[in-house]
Amino acid sequence: MKTLARFVMGGIPQAALVAAVAALLSLFLPLLGIASSAAVALVTMRLGLRQGAAVAGVAGLGCALLGAALLGSAWPALASLLILWLPVWALGATLRVSRSLDLTVLAAGLAGAAMVLAIHGLLQDPAAAWQALLEPFRAALVKDGMIEEADSQVLFHGLAPWMTGAFVAALVLQSLVGLFLGRWWQALLYNPGGFGEEFRRLRLHRSLGLAGLALLAGIALVKGPGLVPDLLTVLTPLWLLQGLAAIHYLHRARGAHSGWLVGLYVLMVVLMPHAELLVACLGLVDNWADVRSRLGGGASGRG
Predict the structure, then answer these.
(1) Distance between CA atoms of 11 and 31, rounded to whole angstroms?
(2) % helix / strand / coil in the chain, to the nearest 5?
(3) Hey, where are the domains in the chain?
(4) Contact at 8 Å (CB) between 100 and 303?
(5) pLDDT mean across residues, the chain
(6) Among 35, 119, 259, 270, whose CB has the most other CB atoms within 10 angstroms?
């Protein structure tokens, strides 16, 4: 990873190459999209907003030319620019200016909430819009014999009302993970161990916990999908990250074996999404009770 980070910092062409190649490969291996975002984030945080934008622009141009030549369309490049690079560039710029991981993570959540509000405000029926967008995919699955027609109608009709929250939450989480990976690369090159300390101190403002309690109360009153569940879904990744930060802090404070963390992440994969929800609940509790200072033998602080 350090070698890759050093290559990215070799110049805008190198960083754009990594961003473009990882973005294209993410069509087959989705997790590589995080590496693409991290390249943009690293340059933005280390060298500045203009350089980060230049990396995204050059990578987008390369993807557009390649997409036009191989696929007859430059739309995949535009999708990469909007989904992979623009959000993480904005977050990298926020972190560079504010020097606060707490504030940057909160900004990502607020941007996601604003996106949900915009979708619900601009679209009379978001679920119908999602059904129209998903229809080609549903038809392709039926055509390939992957699912029966009747079953597909039931499945996609049930998914559509939840897609707004799920899509925006995935975008927020992907952008933050890309930012964290870029921040880790930056620490590997210029401040070894710095990202670990920064992440373990991650603790969001208590107002986010108040918002979470209000949304949970709203869900008890509102049955089924809608604006309130979508907002809660979008903010959940923030509590998930704070929960993980608390666990990493306690792991370090108590000198526990690294196997505990390995086991945690294995369980998060095997028991998805239930394990993630439990960790997010821990993050929400930590928002109010400061679990780290109570169980870690000292004040967690905000650094």
Answers:
(1) 24
(2) 80, 0, 20
(3) 1-99, 100-303
(4) no
(5) 89
(6) 35
Which pLDDT value is given to residue 299?
45
**160, 162, 168, 174 alpha-carbon torsion, rounded to 10°:** -100
pTM exceeding 0.85:
yes
Q: Which residue has the higher pLDDT, 174 or 74?
A: 174
Percent of the chain with pLDDT over 90: 56
In the predicted model, what is the mean pLDDT of residues 248-258? Answer: 89
Q: What are phi and psi of 58, to 5 degrees?
A: -65, -40
Amino acid identity, residue 122?
L
Q: Span 44-58, mean pLDDT?
A: 94
First to last CA, the chain: 27
Q: Report the interhelical angle of 206-221 vs 227-253 (nearest 10°).
A: 140
Mean pLDDT of 56-64: 86
Place of tokens 């210029």: 190
Enter the tokens of residue 87.
């959000």
